[in-house]
């Protein structure tokens, strides 16, 4: 009994020490985290944060568009997220005449809210621990020792089976998601409701929402009003429905209260969101692999493409609008890769990983259990075996798959089949289908000269990193027909290919030919890329054959070791709803350098550079600053803009609500600091920070800058 008491005390102490690290499952909060959260300052019962059998804050946190987080801030379905999360939608509605990216957008009434096809908002209705059910199902599997325990398609069938067995109501808007956690050692099922009629309500101009752009991205201090507003619409019965003019704003079951009382150094905070991916259970060899493949290619290949795009975007507003979202998406993790590699070296993360893994291996030896050593050796062997394939795969994906929009040209397979058949009706149908696909394709690549420049740079970049004997087979043609001149080959693609320009395409459609398809440079280029991807995928599959089983054993060992120490455990991020908690906290990145936890509008004015598009300040914002016309959102003559917290986070947390101790909304998470970019692999308690837009700045921009006080009126605000 005495040992149990001592162990409990030790566990609580450990919880307090490590309270700021972890992406916690909401289902585990009461058992694992409630005590630590209260010790740090939580003032509300943990059941108000998450309640499996009732309404809680969880019910106001949504998955926005599948890749970000959002929060419901009014009873009528108003959703707050980041500007960069809504960026694609803002771009979608923008053109040269209505440049909402530059000018911003504010719907001054409900009729002016803009339908946004393709955008969804997803609520999490239930979170269920189904580990025992899945384990039983796996025992009945035809191959119980196979890899179905991680297969999305298999788990999807199990989810449907579970829902039927448990009489869970499934509607057309219901989505069941069953995922493996801890490398397949635990399973949770998420019952979701998806809304598809989402309308854009408000977005500040990019000079506010994207202030600092690439220069300030992943940095602190920040001065960015990174927010946008959308609204969920439903049918008259409150059910999800496709867009209709008859739809009405959703009457939600939970929306967040907003506090404008402000935040202070040391204040307790917690964050809920959908973190994308991290890899805390990697061994040191995997970390090195990440540095030398994924991060390397992101840095150098994306950097080369972005240089070309930015030069053209600065020359032409139409080009800028078209490529804005693509550029922003690319630049985000380009800079992340640079910062992560620098941090991993600077903070000696490899040494830390080696110490952690040696501790587990020593534990296994003490227990006479060689399973950890076998798993470790297997993972090391796999990493070594797959290196060349992974390196080539990353080069292909970065340089030729994601970078080349013109490679998304329509499939010619149906046309080839029809022409071979010589059936007139079949040829007619195939021609009409290809014509429609071609028209959509050319509409998606309205700037062929930009595409041509990017293609030349990307092919040259790919060739510089991949040895000649390993390159995709299009280089045989480049070498034989174009004497190795990449630029000439790309020029030939755009001048002579069926898909090189609309004129060529129209000519082909009038008289389709097997010979033309079979000798078309662009078609051959696309097939060459596809073949390269397939070959590297096969090589990776062969190398990774035993990885999942070894990783499962390794993660189980890490879990057991931490639990024996009284350290709470959490799974790697996988885009499922999580909670993190900590404090508003400054930090010292280097000797003699201290970064305060808050920034103000003064910093925006100090950074102003009207000759640099990243740091342009709108005239009206300057006027509000000069007159100190901050309304009830300012404090002591200053206008708060951003703050930082030491909560755990990663991509996908963008747009996450930041709560105070009372469960009130105080900010919106949008970024990490440079020193914390190692966090995807190893959390650094003293250095990792999440950057948040202060909710007071958000409201100030909506109210005083945009004059959209009608939106303020539908919020629940406490002072």
Q: How can the largest sheet be summarized?
A: 11 strands, antiparallel
How big is the Rg? 27 Å
Total strands: the figure is: 23
Q: What is the CATH fold-level name of the largest domain?
A: Thrombin, subunit H
Strand content: 15-25%
Question: What is the residue-averaged pLDDT?
Answer: 94
Shape: globular
Low-confidence stretches: 1-19
How many separate domains make up the residues? 3
* Intertermini distance: 48 Å
Number of helices: 27
Give me the secondary-structure category.
alpha+beta
Helix proportion: 40-55%
Q: Any guess at the CATH architecture of the largest domain?
A: Beta Barrel
Please report the first level of CATH classification, the CATH class of the largest domain. Answer: Mainly Beta
Write up this protein.
The protein is of the alpha+beta class and 719 residues long. The protein folds into three domains: 2-120 and 196-279 and 572-718, Thrombin, subunit H, CATH 2.40.10; 134-195, no CATH class; 281-569, no CATH class. Helices cover 47% and strands 15% of the residues. The chain is built from 27 helices and 23 strands. The strands form four sheets. Strands 2, 3, 4, 5, 6, 7, 8, 9, 10, 11 and 12 form an eleven-stranded antiparallel sheet that branches. An eight-stranded antiparallel sheet has the order 1-15-14-20-21-22-19-18. A two-stranded parallel ribbon has the order 13-23. Strand 8 and strand 9 form a beta hairpin. The two termini are 48 Å apart.
């Amino acid at each position: 009994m005495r040992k149990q008491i001592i162990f409990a005390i030790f566990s609580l102490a450990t919880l307090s020490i490590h309270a700021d690290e972890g992406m916690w499952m909401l289902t585990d909060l009461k058992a694992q985290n409630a005590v630590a959260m209260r010790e740090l300052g939580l003032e509300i019962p943990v059941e108000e944060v998450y309640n499996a059998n009732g309404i809680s804050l969880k019910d106001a946190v949504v998955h926005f568009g599948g890749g970000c987080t959002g929060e419901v801030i009014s009873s009528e379905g108003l959703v707050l997220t980041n500007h960069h999360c809504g960026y694609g939608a803002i771009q979608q509605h923008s053109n040269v005449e209505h440049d909402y990216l530059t000018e911003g957008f504010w719907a001054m009434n409900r009729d002016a809210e803009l339908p946004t096809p393709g955008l969804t908002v997803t609520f999490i209705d239930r979170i269920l621990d189904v580990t025992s059910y899945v384990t039983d199902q796996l025992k009945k599997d035809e191959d119980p020792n196979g890899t179905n325990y991680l297969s999305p398609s298999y788990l999807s069938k199990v989810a449907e089976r579970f829902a039927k067995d448990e009489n869970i109501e499934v509607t057309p808007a219901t989505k069941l998601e069953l995922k493996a956690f801890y490398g397949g050692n635990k399973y949770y099922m998420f019952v979701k409701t998806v809304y598809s009629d989402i309308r854009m309500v408000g977005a500040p101009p990019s000079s506010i929402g994207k202030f600092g752009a690439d220069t300030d991205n992943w940095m602190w201090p920040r001065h960015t009003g990174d927010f946008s507003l959308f609204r969920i619409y439903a049918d008259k019965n409150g059910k999800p429905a496709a867009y209709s003019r008859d739809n009405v704003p959703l009457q939600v079951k939970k929306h967040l209260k907003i506090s404008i009382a402000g935040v202070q150094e040391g204040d307790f905070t917690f964050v809920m969101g959908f973190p994308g991916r991290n890899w805390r259970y990697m061994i040191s060899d995997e970390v090195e692999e990440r540095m030398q493949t994924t991060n390397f290619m992101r840095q150098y290949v994306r950097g080369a493409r972005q240089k070309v795009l930015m030069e053209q975007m600065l020359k032409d507003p139409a080009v800028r609008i078209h490529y804005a979202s693509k550029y922003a998406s690319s630049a985000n993790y380009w800079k992340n890769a640079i910062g992560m590699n620098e941090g991993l070296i600077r903070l000696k993360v490899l040494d830390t990983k080696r110490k952690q893994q040696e501790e587990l291996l020593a534990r296994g030896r003490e227990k006479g259990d060689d399973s950890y050593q076998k798993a470790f050796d297997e993972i090391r062997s796999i990493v070594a075996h797959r290196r060349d394939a992974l390196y080539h795969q990353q080069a292909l994906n970065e340089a030729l798959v994601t970078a080349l929009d013109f490679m998304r040209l329509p499939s010619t397979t149906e046309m080839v089949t029809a022409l071979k058949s010589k059936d007139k009706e079949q040829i007619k149908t195939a021609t009409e289908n290809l014509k429609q696909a071609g028209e959509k394709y050319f509409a998606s690549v309205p700037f062929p000269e930009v595409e041509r420049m990017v293609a030349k740079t990307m092919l040259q970049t790919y060739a510089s990193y991949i040895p000649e004997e390993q390159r995709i087979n299009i280089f045989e043609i480049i070498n034989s027909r174009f004497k190795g001149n990449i630029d000439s080959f790309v020029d030939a693609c755009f001048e002579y290919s069926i898909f090189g320009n609309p004129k060529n395409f129209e000519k082909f459609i009038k008289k389709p030919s097997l010979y033309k398809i079979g000798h078309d440079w662009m078609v051959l280029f696309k097939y060459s890329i596809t073949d390269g991807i397939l070959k590297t995928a096969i090589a990776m599959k062969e190398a990774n054959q035993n990885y999942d089983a070894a990783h499962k054993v390794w993660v189980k060992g890490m879990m057991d070791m931490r639990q024996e120490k009284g350290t709470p455990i959490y799974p790697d991020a996988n885009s499922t709803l999580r909670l993190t908690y900590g404090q508003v906290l400054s930090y010292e990145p280097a000797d003699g350098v201290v970064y305060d936890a808050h920034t103000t509008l003064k910093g925006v004015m100090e950074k102003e550079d009207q000759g640099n598009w990243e740091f342009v300040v709108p005239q009206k914002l300057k006027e509000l600053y000069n007159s100190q016309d901050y309304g009830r959102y300012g404090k002591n003559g200053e206008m708060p803009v951003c703050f930082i917290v030491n909560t755990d986070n990663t991509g996908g947390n963008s747009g996450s609500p930041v709560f105070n101790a009372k469960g009130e909304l105080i900010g919106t998470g949008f970024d990490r600091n440079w020193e914390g970019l190692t966090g995807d692999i190893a959390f650094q308690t003293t250095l990792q920070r999440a950057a948040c837009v202060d909710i007071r700045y958000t409201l100030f921009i909506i109210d005083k800058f945009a004059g959209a006080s009608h939106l303020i009126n539908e919020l629940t605000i406490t002072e």
